[in-house]
Write a structure and sequence with these properties.
It holds the Pfam family Desulfoferrodox. GO terms for molecular function: iron ion binding; oxidoreductase activity. Belongs to the desulfoferrodoxin family. This is Desulfoferrodoxin ferrous iron-binding domain-containing protein. The chain is mainly beta and 124 residues long. The protein has a single domain, classed as Sandwich (Immunoglobulin-like), CATH 2.60.40.730. 5% of the residues lie in helices and 40% in strands. It is built from one helix and eight strands; from the N terminus they run βαβββββββ. The strands form two sheets. Strands 1-8-7-4-5 form a five-stranded mixed beta sheet, with no helix packed on it. It has a three-stranded antiparallel beta sheet with strand order 2-3-6, with no helix packed on it. The structure holds fe (ii) ion. The site of fe (ii) ion has 6 residues, from loops. Fe (ii) ion binds next to loops.
Length: 124
């Protein structure tokens, strides 16, 4: 028997909030969209700090049965790093020190064990 269509299945593909404006997001989108912050003005070839937080707009639960399991950071499609979290003991915030030779859009993925993988972006 066929399950839900991919676009209706949170565990099919990567979920993206319909709007990048937090005021227009649903509560589900607010709780799961990873928010990328950059310190200062990044320059090519120089280290800068990037933080990725889930729950910036609305707190996500952090219980053994429902939590953010990991965050990954990319420069466009190029992998930068990944942080895994234990439920309850770790808040879903990851900080990376990044050096890029090309300043592309930063992309973050965050995975909720109950609601699938979610994407957030930031133009540099
Ligand atoms: Fe969730």
């Amino acid at each position: 028997m066929a399950g839900p269509k991919c676009e209706e299945d949170l565990f099919c593909g990567i979920n993206l909030a319909k709007s990048q404006s937090s005021e227009e997001m649903s509560d589900l989108e607010k709780k799961h969209t990873p928010v990328i912050s950059v310190s200062g003005t990044p320059k090519e070839g120089e280290a800068f700090e990037v933080s990725v937080k889930v729950g910036e707009y609305l707190a996500h639960p952090n219980e053994h049965g429902h939590f953010i399991a990991w965050i990954e950071l990319y420069s466009e499609d190029t992998f930068i790093g990944r942080v895994d979290f234990a439920s309850e003991r770790a808040a879903p915030t990851a900080v990376f020190t990044v050096t890029l030779n090309h300043l592309h859009e930063l992309r973050a993925l965050a995975h909720c064990n109950m609601h699938g993988t979610w994407k957030g972006t930031k133009e540099l």
